[in-house]
Amino acid sequence: MASSSPIFTTFLLLFFLATTISAAKETTASPPTASASPSPTASPAKPSPKTPSTPSTPISSHSPLDPKQIRALQSLDIPTSRDPCSPAHNSTIICDASSPFRHLLSLTLSNCSEDVALSLTALKSLSTLTSFQFINCPISPIRFPSELTSNLHTFTCINSLKKLTSVWLSKLENVTDLTVSDVPVSASGPGIILDSLKKLRSVTLSNTNLTGFLPKHWHPNLTYVDLSGNHLKGRIPSSINVMENLLVLNLSSNSLEGEMPSSIGDLTSLQNLSLSSNTISGSIPDSIAAMPDLVHLDLGSNKLNGTVPKFLADMKKLKYLNLEKNSFHGILPFNASFLARLEVFKLGGNGNLCYNHSTLAVKVKLGIAPCDKHGLPMSPPPAKDTSSDSSSDDYSADDYSDNNKQEHHHGPSKVVLGIAIALSSIVFLIIFLVLLSRCCR
Ligand SMILES: *[C@@H]1O[C@H](CO)[C@@H](O)[C@H](O)[C@H]1NC(C)=O
Ligand SMILES: *[C@@H]1O[C@H](CO)[C@@H](O)[C@H](O)[C@H]1NC(C)=O
Ligand SMILES: *[C@@H]1O[C@H](CO)[C@@H](O)[C@H](O)[C@H]1NC(C)=O
Ligand SMILES: *[C@@H]1O[C@H](CO)[C@@H](O)[C@H](O)[C@H]1NC(C)=O
Ligand SMILES: *[C@@H]1O[C@H](CO)[C@@H](O)[C@H](O)[C@H]1NC(C)=O
Ligand SMILES: *[C@@H]1O[C@H](CO)[C@@H](O)[C@H](O)[C@H]1NC(C)=O
Ligand SMILES: *[C@@H]1O[C@H](CO)[C@@H](O)[C@H](O)[C@H]1NC(C)=O
Ligand SMILES: *[C@@H]1O[C@H](CO)[C@@H](O)[C@H](O)[C@H]1NC(C)=O
Ligand SMILES: *[C@@H]1O[C@H](CO)[C@@H](O)[C@H](O)[C@H]1NC(C)=O
Ligand SMILES: *[C@@H]1O[C@H](CO)[C@@H](O)[C@H](O)[C@H]1NC(C)=O
């Protein structure tokens, strides 16, 4: 009896151990099954929208859409068998609530077929629109009637309308939000468009092969300026500082040159600044330190020189910092706690920049060499990276945080495994102690 009970307890404990381990395996296995389940549920979810759309139809039973506008929509290949104003019509159409007929306020034409044509009659009928979007519509532009251009506040043209001109865009006199991207725009420069559209608040002219220089005059009320991916040349004018409400300035991927004007620091509302992929030279102006809200600073792929300013580490909101592929030199003035705070940090491709191994003893790959005792890069820079692939040496904190996140993703399974191992160790310890106490008694 006395000899059988320890064996029995051992069995019991082994059983307990086996169940905990299998339970642990199940919990580690459950995340993949959980992530796999949305896709089977997603496919039956596709036919289901038919049912939710029926309860939503009573909302649209106000008044019908103006018959003239229905005909205009039909001419643009938009199905009108159902009420176009019904919310089931997936926000490509927004109507007002007037009677006896409702009118269109917003229309998005996307992925239209090539045989759709804009007609002056249709556009005249659509002149109640305040917002008009073209997305992937390779149709030919025509002159918009003045009633329409007078009402439009938002105009978007992405990879649509084949080709636009400054004359055509300048007619949109009351537009506050202008987005034109992936369409060639012919103009002597962005200035002629910006000067004509006096009410602009937000402007994107991106990947439009726009040529010329940046304007000398800017609207103080602009909050968003994206002129990236064009052929703009010359310097950044110091008059840029009048845009005191500017939140985003994106001048990346142009042919801008010269130094950054120190007046850029007057843009005290600025959150995102990108001047990447130009040929901007000189050093980073100290005035940047006076931009309290800066979150995103991208100066990569330019010809900036001088030392990396230490004040960047004191910019409390900075999350994204790209200084890669420039000509900075000297010792990187950052410590590990600053680098840990950044979500993205790129520094590679600055051959004369180095980091102090004793103050920045991190395993983080910075893409630059450690300094020797003279503060110069140690002779063999990370040659394996630069020789194999130039794009792989430009990641650092970026890689670091990604790795962190990955570890986090694998975290739960590791935790569970750890618990299982700890539990089994405890169980074995108990068995051992029980056996020990039995035999030594
Ligand atoms: C939105 O509605 C239009 C017209 O009914 C339809 O062609 C299009 O596929 C819908 N788009 C989405 C994303 O549901
Ligand atoms: C347009 O086409 C693209 C790609 O072909 C697709 O991803 C998108 O959902 C389409 N948009 C609409 C509104 O149908
Ligand atoms: C458009 O702007 C002009 C002045 O530029 C103004 O007279 C007109 O009332 C505006 N139209 C609308 C609908 O806001
Ligand atoms: C801009 O010009 C380049 C070279 O001529 C061409 O490949 C590209 O398609 C153009 N972009 C647009 C948006 O037209
Ligand atoms: C800027 O906006 C304010 C108020 O929104 C307006 O009063 C002012 O006239 C605008 N300034 C310009 C130059 O358009
Ligand atoms: C600037 O524009 C480029 C290309 O259009 C884009 O990739 C980048 O994210 C933009 N940056 C900011 C700060 O908006
Ligand atoms: C940085 O570049 C500017 C303009 O190209 C040049 O005048 C200056 O001497 C350079 N400074 C250093 C420290 O290399
Ligand atoms: C501004 O930068 C932040 C941080 O990089 C980014 O998450 C955000 O999308 C950017 N905003 C715009 C409008 O580009
Ligand atoms: C890291 O640098 C920042 C900014 O220079 C400073 O405020 C902070 O105290 C430094 N942290 C450590 C641990 O040295
Ligand atoms: C690196 O930092 C240590 C400790 O702060 C300092 O003693 C050393 O002089 C620095 N090295 C260089 C090259 O500046």
From TrEMBL:
Region of interest called Disordered, as start-end residue ranges on this chain: 28-65, 377-409
Recorded superkingdom: Eukaryota
Bias-annotated ranges (Acidic residues): 391-401
Pfam families per record: LRR_1, LRR_8
Biased composition (Low complexity): 28-45, 53-64
Keyword Transmembrane: yes
Segments crossing the lipid bilayer: 415-436
Keyword field contains Cytoplasm: no
Gene3D superfamilies per the UniProt record, alphabetical: Ribonuclease Inhibitor
Signal peptide positions on this chain: 1-23
Keywords: Leucine-rich repeat, Membrane, Repeat, Signal, Transmembrane, Transmembrane helix
PANTHER family per UniProt: OS01G0750400 PROTEIN, RECEPTOR-LIKE PROTEIN 51-RELATED
Name of the protein: OLC1v1021260C1
The organism of origin for this protein: Oldenlandia corymbosa var. corymbosa
